Amino acid sequence: MTALTLALRAPRLAFFNAAGRLRNGWWILAFFLMLAALLVAASAVLPGGPAGVSPAVQAVLVLVATALCLRLRRERFATLLGRPRDWARGVPLGLALAAVTWGAVAMAAWLAGAVHWQPGAASLQALWQGAVACLVVAALEELVFRGFVFQRLVDGVGAWLAQPLMAAYFVLTHSQGLASAGELQWLAGANIFIAGLVFGTAYLATRSLALPIALHFGLNLLQGPVLGFGVSGHAGDSAWVPVADATRMAWHGGAFGLEASVPGFIAIAGLLAVLLLAWSCSARQAKAVAPMAVALLLCFASLPATQDAHAADRPDYADALRRKVLLDGGAPQRFSIEQRLRHYGVPGVGVAIVEGCRVVDARGFGHADPDGRAVDESTLFQAGSVSKVVAAAGALRLVEQGALPLDADVTPLLEGWRLPRVPAAGMAPITLRHLLTHTAGLNVEGFKGYAQGSAVPSLRQVFEGAPPANTDAIRVEHAPGSGWRYSGGGFVLVQQLVASASGQPFADALRERVLRPAGMADSSYLPPADAARRARAATGMLADGRPIPGGWRIYPEQAAAGLWTTPTDLSRFAIALVRSLRGEPGALLRQATAADMLRRQADAWGLGVEVSPAGEPGRFSHTGAPVGFRTLWLMFPDTCQGATVMTNADEGMTLAYEIARAIADTHGWPDPMPSEHAAAIAMTPAIAARFTGRYELVDFPAERFEVTVHAGGSLTWSREGRQRRDLVATSARELVSPDSGMRLALPPQDAADGPAAQIELRFPGGLNLARRIAEPNTP
Fold first, then answer.
1. How many whole angstroms separate alpha carbon 130 and alpha carbon 310?
2. N or C end: fewer C-beta atoms under 10 angstroms in the chain?
3. Helices then strands (H, E): number in the chain?
4. What pLDDT score was predicted for residue 282?
């Protein structure tokens, strides 16, 4: 053949093979060009633009592009999908293999004590929706990864090369989610790669998409809607909710789920071995099977021992508690939870940790009641003001349904309640946004609760301040929208608005609209009434160390302070808000609603929740302080990390923050929650004499405290009726509490020797002046 002939034939050889058919590479390009054109057209036509192209629509478009390519090749769909009898055999086989695979993995993780399951909140409808979503995603991914393109690759380069190429492409398209696997992302990536080989081998062994689609669907269904782990296509409720030990992530995969676990790797690799064996039954496939078998053996050889790197039951954070102030050159300043429980006189604490939108650890420490019952992950606590965030979400659900306005006057909806106003407050309308951002100008900051067995007021009596209510009547004292003023009273109005708009008691309305959809199966706005819930409820402890008679107080102000829950459930609620913010399918709130809720609007507040300022790591949070309990609830939405810490003591908040700092250190939170540093000096008699005494706040005379000197010269301070806390001198004119960070300082104008007439209380965000009224009591 002459050079001229070769030159003339080169363009044709580039496009067509020796049989005169278009080369496979051009068919692959044609498929993706058709699919891209269809996606652009769908984005232009469907509401919402590209966001409106759901997985179901994508699957249809892939089918259309596949049909067009097959038509151009003059081939039938059966060459891709398989025959009816292939589906009759492939579907039950795929589902059975999936059940055995993930069932074995879940059993191994459970037997190892790495995870256990609690009943989830999914209804039959939610499970059905989750199954449909998983089926759509499985069909879509198999059509893309094992469909027309895969066939062309197999024809063009052979199965032994097509398989790893498509498996690598499969991993690449899932790379965005691998970050949630943290230190196990290499294992998650390897598992996804092997899963790609599994699905490809399933197709090659049967020459039908029935088995790979059924297998893919079954694995997703079991991991997501059934077992409650993360999986493509499912973000809603599940039949079971995993409670995992964060120290044994290699057993359960942490936030990523079973696909990032060692047992999951072994099971998927074993499944691949079974399918390879089935495929290799034909001698002509031996050459293709051999390279994949070698690759599988290499994967096993590189797999570390299955013992978890953090095999100890005790989590890292439990011995890493860090105070608000670190003393330069001081003794070791990391503490165990047990040490700090004793230090603060707190009976018990429950902790739940979120990593990658999954509760990866939930456990308790200490005691739930005076009888010594241990706190565990199922112990119920009063959430106090964190109830407001959940109530805000319930109100916003009604806004989405058109039953409540967000930015219109809501006072006409209070069904006969007349809201008094002082003249200076004017007559500007009050909106739900005002109430949720604490800008309605209302009074009544918080509530005291009611002793069990005493008369409990109705919500209207609370509103009117009528007996037996123990708080003032709610009224407008400042012009609505004129500024921020924390008001629990505003949430009394929110409670009435939700009940009126829903036509249900508030507790029922929130159960249906928030608690159940968010998977908060252990939560209720009603106090524990039946024997089973009372047996799980913690007993609160007063500031003086006495347990609350009856165990807890009753709060008819449910929206403001009435939620009973667990750290795990509150963490699930935080996850539900993050998923809403990300616009995930089936989320609790619409994406725009969640963005509005978690946007800083007044002072540090969004709609019912505190939000970090611009320039700092994104965070939303709230605290709760009902009588006898303390709660710290926080979440970093960008990484979907966070924690809930709940204690059964008035003195528990400082402990909660110490635990949060330890989790920030051990889990790498975006905000490291740094401690302050202080250089301590020796406490001299002269310094002690300047500060010791009993004091009252100048602006709040009812608030009193004392500074006391002890044997050996050390100082403590305590509010009346509360426990004593250590003080350290940082100069001759200033003392600091390492626990809370509060500083006691002499005013600049005080230059005299002897006992100070006044001292300043300095704390983050404020300063109070206190005057000396007496000598301290003898400790």
1. 33
2. N
3. 26, 22
4. 47
